[in-house]
Amino acid sequence: MILISEDKNSIVKIDKGELVSYKKNGEEFMHQKGNPGWRNSDTEMFPIIGPTEANNFIVSTPKGNYNQDQHGLLRELDYTILHQDDTSFAFKKKYAAYTAIVNSKYPDKSTVRLVSWPYSFSFQKKIELKNEALKISFEIRTEKGMPFMLGYHPAFMLQGNLDEIVTTKKEKISIPSIINGGNTAYPILNTDEVKLIKKSGYNLSIKTKGFNDFMLWTEVSNMLCIEPITAYPYTGYELLSKELFNTSNGVDIFEVQITPF
């Protein structure tokens, strides 16, 4: 699936709902599958963010305790296409409450074979290409009161020289600092925009609506995950405590805009 901007300068490629390429004037911004670092280019984390192994893969909800592996079960479901036009694609995943889903991490990276959640939900992802930016939006429909965490997990291409920096209004973060952060990722709290600044080529602004925080993760010099999240899960306190969860309004909408500059 391909989107081309009206001015013909930008092109996006999508594979089964995954954003696998975003180019402007020939420059690729997304991490490419097969390169060192990560096996994907983007994914979503829902209904939880973070690891659950330390709590025997159990997450507590108002309807009881249920098995969830790292970053939730949404990634185990397949997208179906809802809509397409010249500038956008919309995709949807649906889940029926209590349905047991086979955990793809089992048995190599997890001891839990089946995961489930006590709430039904539909999850929509829309990818819209404009001349100046790429917008990714999410719509979550479920019963009011469902606890959830949401994270968008895109991976961006770096040049491999460890000289890029991530900036906010208050700080500048180097790639070595992010690598040193390890698996708990580097937190950026209470902000709706970060910028990836490079020595050459386009810089990127990642601006959000609905998310509270970001976390940054990489283990390599050629890739960086800049992840908008509703809450940073690695708090050092009770794993996935109630305070980390949003409460559903029935319909909740989140947006991420990636702007080259």
Automatic annotation (TrEMBL):
InterPro entries, alphabetically? Aldose_1/G6P_1-epimerase, Gal_mutarotase_sf_dom, GH-type_carb-bd
The GO molecular function terms of this record are: carbohydrate binding; isomerase activity
Give the Pfam families listed for this entry. Answer: Aldose_epim
Set out the biological process GO terms recorded for this chain's protein: carbohydrate metabolic process
Report TM segments.
none
Q: Does the keyword Calcium apply?
A: yes
- What are the record keywords, sorted? Calcium
Q: Which cofactor does it need?
A: Ca(2+)
Keyword Calcium included in the entry's annotation: yes
> Entry's Gene3D superfamilies?
2.70.98.10
Entry superkingdom: Bacteria
**What does the subunit section of this Swiss-Prot or TrEMBL entry state?**
Monomer.
Q: What is this protein called?
A: Aldose 1-epimerase
Q: Which organism is it from?
A: Gramella jeungdoensis
Q: What is the lineage of its organism?
A: Bacteria, Pseudomonadati, Bacteroidota, Flavobacteriia, Flavobacteriales
